[in-house]
Write a structure and sequence with these properties.
- This protein has a single domain (2-337), classed as Purple Acid Phosphatase, chain A, domain 2 (4-Layer Sandwich), CATH 3.60.21.10.
- It has helices at 78-91, 109-118, 120-124, 146-153, 187-197, 230-242, and strands spanning 2-3, 6-7, 17-18, 20-21, 46-48, 58-62, 95-98, 129-131, 163-167, 171-175, 205-209, 249-254, 260-265, 268-273, 300-307, 310-318, 328-337.
- A seven-stranded mixed sheet has the order 5-9-10-11-12-14-13, with no helix packed on it. Strands 8-7-6-15-16-17 form a six-stranded mixed sheet. A two-stranded antiparallel sheet has the order 1-4.
- The longest helix is centred in the N-terminal third of the chain and has 14 residues, at 78-91.
- The radius of gyration is 18 Å and the shape is globular.
- The protein is α/β, with parallel strands linked by helices.
């Protein structure tokens, strides 16, 4: 089945628009069995067949859109947000991964309504959309149940705060919930460890999508509360142990910091992609960051092309201030080669 999250807000693919296409889904264990969320059965929760994808397909990653009333220009830039949505629809990726903070206030159903309205083009293009929960999905002081709104937008994800998708036989996606425990012994961590331990042999690239970053430029001046937290650092340390021994390459894509960063740690590529339209954050870049440009703001998306045994990636930045026609600048590029 295909999840078009746009229309339904989450239609697995995860449906960002109508409902992307998820492919086959498994029945999760009961919440009581894990204590914190759902521990799914071994294997991918959803799958897209090789026959449903081009041999060399494309993936777009971005996050921190903060869909909300477009008259709110303090918490988000509605013009940049809409320009990104339109450009992504034009790119027509085979897979669209959202790194969280889709709505500005998850306790206000109206913000999900705005998401559906502004992403109508994604539904038209029938994009496969796979979102990860962010902190703003639980934010605001509104009257509405935040998870109810999330699952109404992405019904294929009902009762799954984290999940996996086999994107053909070569690419595997793990969408995590960094608002839940990722440390050793937690339900989510047990699920993740099982997923990685049983990774199919044909998988060449593993994407982990989440909101809070495990690796980022450590800030001492601005937004220090967005530095990596113990919860995500524990995940980073675990990945540093298992990923080098895996037959696949790992890419970790997060958001939360409203900018762009790229770092390599123990053979893993860590990305911060939080330039989806939320109020931009300045970043003091540190030496490990592979991206040292001084551009600001960095409203952007990252486009991956699977080309044989390589992932070719480009970060496209929205020229700012915006003109009558948005300008898209290729500001960073990198290649990840299968083992």
């Amino acid at each position: 089945m295909r999840l078009n999250f746009v229309a339904s807000c989450f239609s697995v693919a995860i449906l960002v628009i109508g409902a992307p296409v998820l492919a086959s889904a498994q029945t999760p264990a009961s919440p009581a069995a894990t204590g914190s969320g759902l521990l799914s059965q071994p294997g991918a929760n959803f799958a897209v067949k090789d026959s449903e994808l081009p041999q060399n397909f494309s993936i777009i990653v971005y996050g921190d859109m903060r869909f909300t009333d477009p008259t709110d220009t303090k918490d988000a830039d509605p013009d940049a947000r809409r320009a990104l949505v339109a450009q992504i629809a034009e790119e027509h990726p085979d897979v669209l991964i959202l790194t969280g903070d889709v709505p500005y206030r998850g306790t206000f159903a109206a913000d999900y309504d705005e998401y559906r309205l502004e992403t109508a083009a994604w539904r038209t293009e029938n994009l496969r959309v796979y979102p990860a929960l962010g902190n703003h999905e639980f934010g605001g002081k509104g009257p509405d149940d935040p998870l109810k709104g999330w699952w109404a937008a992405f019904p294929e994800l009902k009762d799954r705060r984290w999940y996996s998708v086999a994107l053909g036989s070569r690419v595997y996606l793990l969408c995590l919930d960094s608002d839940s425990d990722l440390t050793t012994g937690s339900g989510q961590r047990a699920w993740l460890e099982d997923q990685i331990a049983h990774l199919p042999k044909k998988v060449e690239f593993v994407f982990l999508a989440m909101h809070h970053p495990p690796v980022a430029d450590i800030q001492t001046r601005l937004h220090v509360d967005h530095n990596p937290r113990p919860n995500e650092i524990a995940l980073r340390d675990y990945l540093s142990q298992v990923a080098p021994r895996s037959h696949a390459r790992f890419i970790v894509a997060a958001g939360h910091i409203h900018n762009y960063e790229r770092t390599e740690v123990d053979g893993l590529t860590y990305l911060v992609s939080g330039g989806g339209g939320a109020h931009p954050y300045e970043v003091d870049r540190t030496p490990p960051d592979k991206y040292q440009a001084t551009d600001f703001p960095n409203f952007h998306y990252i486009l991956f092309h699977l080309d044989g045994r390589q992932l070719n990636a480009t970060m496209f930045r929205l020229g700012y201030p915006m003109g009558a026609k948005p300008e898209w600048q290729a500001r960073d590029s990198f290649v990840i080669t299968a083992k």
